[in-house]
Amino acid sequence: MVSKQEILTKLEQVMDPEIPGLNIVDMGMVSHIRIGETVEVDLLPTFLGCPALDVIRRRVEETLHEYQPVVRFTYDIPWSSDRISPEGRARLLHWGVAPPASAEAQDPACPLCGSSNTEKQSRFGPTLCRALYYCRDCQQPFEAIKVI
Amino acid sequence: MDHETREALIRLITPIADDEWIVGHRGSEWLGLAPELEEDLAFSSIHQDEMGHALYLYELLHDLGEPDPDALVYARPVASWRNACFVEAANGDWAATVVRRYFYEMFDRLRLEALAHVDFTPLAHGLKKIQREEAFHLKHFALWMEMLAQGGDEARRRVIDAVAAVWPTLSDLFDWGLRDDVQAQLGLPPALALKDAWVREVRAQFQDWQLPWPGEIPTTMEHNGRAGRHTPALDDILTTMRAVRVIAPESAW
Q1: Are B129 and A78 a contacting pair at CB < 8 A?
Q2: Within a domain: A91
Q3: What is the ipTM of this complex?
Q4: CATH assignment at residue A50
């Protein structure tokens, strides 16, 4: 029988279609894996209106097709930006998107130069989960994952 | 679940889903037209959220025995929609959109809080998720209200005119669309309490922004969306929204 770890490793191949390089495990979207006669995967939607949800579900089904998985979105736990793993935060940073700021910090540090001298420009960015910021030190605009 | 409870939940959830869907649709009409690029992005995010909330609620309705979300949105006759007339009005001046959206978001926040008393787990799960997303929306429109109220003579005049224009159309928003006994049975506060709470919150913010208070909210209305008595604006939205579906019902989306 396949192990949970093997399933997780496979799920690390499924990327968030709106944030290349970040997989759904690091994004904290995988909430439960149950292995019995079938493999069941429960996913947490980041935002209810996220247009990538169907694509993600399809990619999970394709990736695990040999196990004929049952993949569904569940809502018992709301997804939170705290669920992004340390690896996920590092990948976001590498890709130029600031990881969600900690509760104490008002605004996220600049992902380009590391300065904390940043300001919010808009709560809404190019996708539901991102907001727009500006770095006063390196004078570059950047995006950050919303704290939710 | 017994038949009566199921019916009560359907009646409770339909107006909320319809409000969110119609707000989402009206918001989408601003795309490419909003006053600045950042606002275009904000509108796209906010209204995508609203439509996502509506879809979640339509799926709950489907689980309770109603037709599937596509049928509810694309095939339901106008008189079966339960959104408030307040949200269906056509877009016009940007200030009117800001006022309407701020009023709606404040109402929606209070409604979500009131719904926490309803004992139906799938609804409770969705609400927790929805509340996290809606907090961003209310802040956004409150900020716009403040910018317009304190943004110079023209902006201030436009926001005051917009408040006066939409004020007489507010009242069906606060109607749960339920019989009093059903409403009490579900654990919901009376419509009046919801309205009082809304007035308190909005009035305090109007004071901060130094906007004149328009007075009592008129309660007599020719139209009441919660009873299916809509303005012609809803027919216009549905006709536009369904245009492609009508031409090519079998097309893939």
Answers
A1: yes
A2: no
A3: 0.72
A4: 3.30.300.130
Which residues constitute the domain of residue A134? 96-145
pTM above 0.90, yes or no: no
The rounded distance, in Å, linking the Cα atoms of B79 and B20 is 17
Interface of A with B (CB under 8 A): 45, 47-51, 75-76, 78-80, 121-128, 132, 146, 148
Topology annotation, domain B3-247: Ferritin (1.20.1260)
Q: Phi/psi at B137 (nearest 5 deg)?
A: -70, -45
Q: Are residues A69 and A113 in the same domain?
A: no
Q: B9-21, pLDDT tens digit by residue?
A: 999 999 999 999 9
CB B100 within 8 A of CB B86: yes
Provide the pLDDT for residue B221: 73
Domain boundaries, chain B: 3-247
Nearest residue in A to B57, CA atom: A48
| Rounded-to-integer distance, Cα B145 and Cα A118, Å | 25
Contact B148, B161 (CB under 8 A): no
Q: List pLDDT tens digits, range A63-105.
A: 999 999 999 999 888 898 999 999 999 999 998 999 988 766 6
Q: Do B126 and A75 lie within an 8 Å CB cutoff?
A: yes
Cβ atoms of residues B173 and B105 within 8 Å: no
